[in-house]
Design goal:
The chain is α+β, with helices and mostly antiparallel strands. The protein has 10 helices and 6 strands; from the N terminus they run αβββαβαββααααααα. It is 53% helix and 14% strand. The radius of gyration is 21 Å and the shape is elongated.
Length: 279
Amino acid sequence: MEAQRIKDDDEAVRVALTSLRNATGIPVAMYATLLPDNRLQITQWLGLRTPALHNLVIPPGVGVGGRVVASRRPVGVSDYARATIISHENDKIIQDEGLYSLVAVPVIVRREIRGCLYVGVHSPVRLGDKVIEEVTMTARTLEQDLAINSAMRTAAGVKSGGKAGRVMNGAEWEQIRSTHSKLRMLTNRITDEALRRELEVLCDQMVSPVHVKQTTKLSARELDVLSCVALGHTNVEAAEEMGIGAETVKSYLRSVMRKLGAHTRYEAVNAARRIGALP
């Protein structure tokens, strides 16, 4: 059970790092796990030029990561060696790697810090607010993935009478997400109101194990549109699936993105997953 937990969480981190690097174009992406003694250890990385930071253990309060853990807030420095908001015990290691700017964001699951996501560059480039926002969004998605892994493990234990059960892997969870979207599409075709409500309850139950409080209220139609987007449908395909016009789909998407503070349709899907509106 513990080995499977580590495997599932490691896979979620790998996906987050790859997604983050692809979304930002920033060459270096890292994840540091918070150890039981409040130290951080860099456990996964992409784009490092040297082994200087490989598996590095960072004491409490040290550097960018230490400040993130202490403040529970994102931290960015544009010139690491001259930054005044961090301590400098690791300057030699950072210099050996050649990193210039770093941004780190906490990953918090059920109010507990699980680790930090980092991005960095080797050249004198300032990583601005847009980068911090992108790292923060990726961290929120990772938080939900880790929470889902935990919920699925808990559910497996309950179903097996408190004993360790088999836990769904990433591919199986993606199947759950796909099934949820298709179920919403099926619900959209039902004319019997009582049956429709029953199916909507089932959709809600598929995301309830995450226990994320939904503070933004999305309408059933808005959720239907997001479910189509989650399946990779275009606006025209979503319109055909829902039996409405493409302009109406665009209108629903604009409303959803405004409510969720998203800039693209895919950001809206991720934001909906973070608040527990989609699995």
